[in-house]
UniProtKB/TrEMBL annotation:
Gene3D superfamilies: 1.10.287.130, 3.30.450.40, 3.40.50.2300, Histidine kinase-like ATPase, C-terminal domain, PAS domain. It is found in: Cell inner membrane. Its main location: membrane. It comes from the Bacteria. The modification 4-aspartylphosphate is found at residue 607. This is histidine kinase. The lineage of its organism: Bacteria, Pseudomonadati, Pseudomonadota, Betaproteobacteria, Burkholderiales. Its EC number is 2.7.13.3. PANTHER family: HYBRID SIGNAL TRANSDUCTION HISTIDINE KINASE C, TWO-COMPONENT HISTIDINE KINASE. Residues 558-674 form the Response regulatory domain.
């Protein structure tokens, strides 16, 4: 069989340019002798195949057929010549530029008097159609495969299970040795294969790796969002290019598709082959698409799991909060009843102490909650100054001493020199250290050992709290500083708490530009908390703070108390009178203004949430009256956020006290305005 076909355009071109070779066409017409051999010249066969007449004469035309197709084509052609029947063949024919094209050949005999005189037919280049059909089939198969993965993982709620199912299905679909999905850490280097699929007898690659170990090509490609495609590890990479690491995990060929989001490598999907393999563009493409889809689905699953976990934490927290608030209320109620039954003597003093301790405990719970909320919303501003670490450690010990002594713990102090100065907010550092000490007291069995140490190390101060308490299992240590975390191993072994203390410590330390870490060798092995905070640049030691006790007035100025809570009003009036003040009171705004006119106070303790006319209105009315220009007005309120303090200052208040007011804080305010009044 040989063929030649010249289109009308080619015929015109041939006539117009004698001797010029016809242009190649996608269709040729051929004719042969009755026995199938080429006996006459056909120029267009030469145009398509590039063969000369001598090269395709006789049976030599078959040399243009792809070697893999040639034997089958000749067999079919000779069978057709023998039987004289019409035939259709598909094979690859070499074009003049050396590219093999897929053609469909059709032929039929030309009969004269019932005898075959010759054969004629066509060869049509169907490469484009075949490739389009193949692409369509591949696309349909790709979509069916992606749909199968979607169906298999749609109902899964565990991210690791999604990874495992996806890796198995992709590995089996590609006939690979191993397939793995990996999460990449924010450092763009360390990645974790949590679950992979391996062919029978092939070891798992699950574990933690450094991307840099796999060579510069892998590192560069993946970090820049390009796939790593290696057909033969030894030939293309070599030992220094990453081949040593790939060989160590049994990989000779690999497709690794990296996923970059917002400039950071976040995930990878890798397909391994234990022998060299030529990866097709379709195979490379499907791996890239799978990693994109898998990551999106895994992130959705993780987000849903996080919401479920947050709901669980919320429910646990609310239950714990109710428990923690009821606990101090019970002894307060008992103490009140005890005071009613025994109004005098030692029992009354005991009841007073109980009420004071439990009210302080409740106030601290509420303060911690508010602090966490304020920090989360960026509403806390640090009041930084140069302050001795030694002094802050001692103050923190005093705040935690009741819990430590109640549990009969032995506290060891290793204090720094006085010249170790922090650049920090003193109140917040005391809060940090106090929370760590209280945490140690809570999670150490009675009679335990607690050590507090502090020292300078370079440009930072180091604070360490060590206990021999219940410790923390390794698998739970990563959750320790999360909000509302109550570790399961400590259930029944701690003395209450909302699970926010350590979260608050971490947030406050980081606001200072410091760091906090925890170390424990496991259950019942104790814990060590280490805090690093910046040292002050100057060595000046601030003057010691004035004790609030020293500032308490003896005979103070007249005070007007405005409070709509009857019990709160009565108790505060009694306390102020016990401190030597002349006191008047009012339960609403209009009454407060009348009392101010009649009583002429030097200090007004003014609640904000009054019925009708609120505390802001009362303050504005007082400030508008010239006779009250020098009267000190102090807000007395349960609202204690920074914005609340700014609002009272803008409204003309001289100070802001948050309920429940500590007696020492009240004495300090009274002493200050007593001095001002003089």
């Amino acid at each position: 069989m040989a063929a030649s076909f010249v289109s009308p355009d080619e015929l015109h071109a041939a006539r117009d340019a004698p001797g010029a070779a016809p242009a190649p066409s996608a269709v040729v017409v051929w004719h042969t002798a009755a026995d199938g051999r080429i006996e006459v010249e056909n120029p267009s066969w030469s145009v398509f195949t590039g063969q000369t007449f001598e090269q395709y004469r006789g049976w030599a035309w078959s040399e243009a057929i792809h070697p893999e197709d040639r034997a089958a084509v000749l067999h079919r052609w000779q069978a057709a010549v023998t039987t004289g029947g019409v035939f259709v063949l598909h094979y690859r024919l070499r074009r003049h530029d050396g590219e093999y094209r897929e053609v469909m050949a059709q032929g039929a005999p030309v009969l004269v008097g019932g005898v075959i005189r010759e054969w004629v037919g066509t060869c049509v280049d169907v490469t484009a159609e075949r490739r389009a059909q193949a692409a369509l089939r591949a696309s349909e198969e790709r979509l069916r495969f992606l749909d199968r993965i979607g169906q298999a993982t749609r109902e899964l709620t565990d991210a690791t299970e999604v990874m495992a199912v996806t890796a198995r299905m992709l590995g089996q679909h590609l006939g690979a040795t191993r397939c793995a999905y990996a999460d990449v850490e924010p450092d763009n280097d360390r990645f974790t294969i949590r679950s992979d699929w391996s062919a029978p007898g092939v070891a798992s690659s699950a574990g933690v790796y450094s991307l840099d170990l796999f060579g510069p090509q892998a590192t560069s490609n993946l970090r820049h969002g390009r796939h790593l495609v290696v057909h033969d590890v030894d030939r293309e990479l070599g030992d220094e290019g990453g081949g040593r690491m790939f060989n160590a995990i049994g990989v000779k060929a690999i497709i690794c598709a990296g996923l970059v989001k917002q400039g950071r490598l976040v995930a990878m999907m890798a397909v391994h082959q234990a022998t060299p393999r030529h990866w097709t563009p379709q195979e490379i493409s499907i791996v890239g698409e799978i990693v994109e889809r898998s990551w999106a689905h895994i992130e959705r699953v993780r987000a849903a799991a996080m919401l479920r976990e947050q709901d669980r934490h919320k429910d646990e927290f609310l239950a714990t909060l109710a428990h923690e608030l009821r606990n101090p209320l019970a002894p307060i109620k008992y103490a009140v009843e005890l005071m009613r039954l025994s109004p005098e003597g030692a029992l009354k003093a005991q009841a007073h102490n109980v009420i004071d301790r439990q009210a302080t405990h409740m106030a601290r719970l509420i303060d911690d909650l508010l602090d966490v909320s304020r920090i989360s919303r960026g509403m806390i501003t640090l009041q930084r100054r140069s302050v001795p670490l030694r002094r802050l450690m001692l103050e923190a010990v005093e705040t935690a001493r009741p819990a430590i002594e109640a549990a009969r713990h032995r506290l060891t102090l290793q204090l720094p020199e006085e010249d170790v100065l922090l650049d920090a907010d003193p109140a917040r550092v005391v809060q940090i250290i106090g929370n760590l000490l209280s945490n140690a007291a809570k999670y150490t069995p009675d009679g335990g050992e607690i050590r507090l140490a502090g020292w300078a190390a370079g440009v930072r101060a180091v604070i360490e709290v060590v206990d021999n308490g219940v410790g923390v299992p390794l698998e739970q240590q990563g959750r320790l500083f999360q909000m509302f975390t109550q570790l399961h191993h400590s259930a029944g072994r701690a003395k209450g708490g909302l699970g926010i203390g350590l979260s608050l410590v971490k947030k406050l330390v980081e606001m200072h530009g410091g760091a906090v870490r925890m170390r424990s060798d496991g259950l019942d092995e104790g814990s060590t908390f280490t805090v690093e905070l910046p040292l002050a640049r100057s060595a000046g030691v601030p003057p010691p703070a004035v004790s609030s006790q020293d500032a308490a007035p003896g005979q103070g100025p007249r005070v007007l108390v405005v409070e709509d809570n009857p019990d709160g009003l009565a108790m505060l009036v009694s306390l102020l009178r016990a401190l030597g003040h002349e006191v008047a009171c009012a339960a609403d705004g209009p009454e407060a203004l009348r009392q101010a006119q009649a009583f002429r106070p030097r200090l007004v303790l003014l609640d904000l949430g009054l019925p009708g006319m609120d505390g802001y209105d009362v303050a504005r009315r007082l400030r508008a009256d010239p006779q009250f220009q020098k009267v000190a007005i102090v807000a007395l309120t349960g609202w204690g956020a920074e914005r609340d303090r700014r609002r009272t200052a803008e409204a003309g208040f001289d100070a802001h006290l948050t309920k429940p007011v500590e007696p020492d804080a009240l004495r300090s305010v009274l002493a200050h305005f007593a001095r001002v009044a003089r």
